[in-house]
# Entry
Amino acid sequence: MKSFVLDVNGHTRSLKAEPETPLLYVLRDQLGLKGPRFGCGLGQCGACTVIIEGTATRSCITPVSTVHEKAVTTLEGLGSSRRPHRIQQAFIDSQAAQCGYCINGMIMTAKAFLDKNPRPTEDDVRRALARNLCRCGTHPRIVDAVMHAAKGA
Amino acid sequence: MSVPFAVTRRQFLQTGGALVVGFSLAGSIGEALGQTVGAPKNFKLVDAWLAIDANGRVTVYSGHVELGTGVETALTQMVADELDVPFASVGIVQGDTLLTPDQGPTWGSLTIQVAGLQLRKAAACARRAMLALASAQLGAAPGDLQVANGAISRGRTRLTYAALTRRRALEVPFDEKVELKKAGAFRIVGKSIPRVDIPAKVTGEFTYMQDFKVRGMLHGRVVRPTAMKGTLESIDDSAARKIPGFFTTVVKGNFVGVVARTEWGAIKAMEAVECRWSDWSGLPPMDQVYETVKKTAVKQTITPMKEGDAAGVLASAAKRIDATYEYPVQTHGSIGPSCSIADVRHDRALIWSASQSTHWTQRQIAKMLGMNAEQVRIIYLEGAGCYGRNGHEDATADAAILSQAIGRPVRVQWMRQDEHGWDPKAPPYVADLQGALDATGNVLAWNFVTWLPFRIGGAVDVPLLAQDLVQGDVAIQTADNMNAGTMESDAKPPYTFPNVLSTVHKVATTPFRPSWLRSPGRMQNTYANECFMDELAAAAGADPVAFRLKHLQDTRGTECIDACIKAAGWQTRPSPNKQPGTGDVVTGRGFSYVFYDNARTYVSAVCDVEVNRKSGHVRATRFVVAHDCGLIVNPDGVKAQIEGGIIQTLSRTLIEEVKWDGSRVTSVDWASYPILAFDAVPKIEITLIDRPEKPAWGAGEPICSVVPSALSNAIFDATGARMRTAPYTPVRVQAALARL
# Structure
């Protein structure tokens, strides 16, 4: 077990973990966050996405040792149901969730993408989300939501 | 919070003036409530179905559950409207085996149609009972009273539902024949009310099954055999014991599990346990799976339709067509692998599960643990979408076995390879069709034969994987225990022909543990029927839609088809397209139609495709749909289901196929079993046909049933090549083009 210090959603968090422990389990099991989700553990589906120092990252294949003293943002760090971030609000307005399990990854990937590409085309959005999987078939609404969020910025 | 072990119905009544148990059973409240076991509720009385507390808040007890399709919102609309209370004052307790009625599994797009109708009836009974009580108290006929916003009034005198409920108004019999609101009276039904669950789901506040925790909980993982029916020969867990947080190894028959104090510890321990399994390689070769199905012993044969003498007419027909359609083994592909927590004590078990059929699972788990059903309580928590019977129930059994072995609460989170590799599968499907045309291009005879897994009757779920492993026998695909859903539905065509024979052979075994996957059988049967109808139309030189219409004697079905082709701008002409384009990429359009289950929900669809003749790549560019499910409760909810059904079934038809070697499933992740991504999603245009005066039928599954045939027919229109075996991979499309 080693000690690590992370900036999670603007708060300094100190914790002990095996260095190779994926960040996902640290966030979910030790820090009690529910935004990042376990989907595959292989970096294939995107459900676990968090933003590390501005980059959308798959937390299920990111050892906690690599994020020591770095800034991690999770879905909870964007907003709440009382005060949703504009991307979250756009997902609500577009009713862009069915089971909703993949949506963390969609929103976090979109957030990092829009921060760098504030005026995307629909095709840009589709490309940005190409490696995020959704099984319910919510894709058109997700693209709508991200486009609306971009326009509302 | 301390709650006694057994709480009687009366004690609950005394706590809040009504039989009210909280809306959200997640978190610590759920844990505390979970310690209670009570006498079964009496669902012959209305107050078992819904309760109204002192503040007028309504709690509905629903055996059907939210699986991500939006039914929580739609059911709330139905109850609020029928009861005349504000939408926001209604909450639903779902699937808790102690508190909710057994309404059967949440399957078949039957929640609105069947379970919702029952809830509406309960609400109507409650409203009627309160109106009768108010009528007596106010000395006025019910017709002279106003009912609105959870209160009954006459002039300035107002009696709230809360006050009437305190006088035990809801302790009246549930009346199946109670009169329901009619078209024109709905205030909330028919509106696109935003889903109640979405704000929490997009902010990380929602508690999925995978998020739930209980005090003292340990983490379990299961070590799977290397061959599906391999038996455990030896085990060495010495390396696992050195993993930080390791707690114990549990071995029962062929069931091998590890338990650790941390989740990562459990995963590491699972990987560190070294098992030797016996060899087994009894699976049929992948490329012979459909022949294997046809050669399987038949346990029962049924004929869903028999008119005239199809065999005789076909034998002497001047113009006869034969075709065989094949649809692959597929997995549910939930994005979140299955998860459950079990706390099994010597005399009772408390379980949290995302099972779509908690009441069935309760009975299965009780039997497995050697308990009575009443000793097992399952509390439902929503998981990732399951689209049928996936691994949720099996993860529940895994957790129960581990918890029983160690006497502590255990959370089992399936890994990706568990879900892809070991969830029960949609069975391989094959159908042979033969048709004869007369001189005027009408269908003279139609013969359909398919082979489906024998389905054991009654309320029997798919067998639990863990139980089979414990018993040392994963002989899980025999006639004694198979339930792949009522796959014979839609085996008969929706059209009228003079000579028809539809035959379904129920086979005694199938290669994998079968279960239902969205639109089970209906989708495959409609695939065969609607592709074949297209082949007959082409043989007759007829426009595919006109050809169907002249064989269809169903006004409502005809209206659905008309609405679809009008919206699509359908050009009347035969297929294939004479002007599909000149480059590598050619375009076409395909049509398909279903009367779902031959009993409910009409769907018509036009699919536009682009086919790259060089690469064999198929891209659906547009889907135009007309959809008639009777009364529409939530139009946007129906649209979301249609969009999802199209995209998911396109994915299944274009790219999805479970792969295996002789011993086991080998497609155990998203690289080996990919699903459709954003770039392949078509434009979707939907026409909803609302019939508020008609019963509400299901939505969700019906759209799925027309997708593969619309796509195949469109590929034919574009290229002249028939795709009869899914998925339509570039290699298969190239092969079909090469045969032209």
In short: The mean pLDDT of chain A is 97.
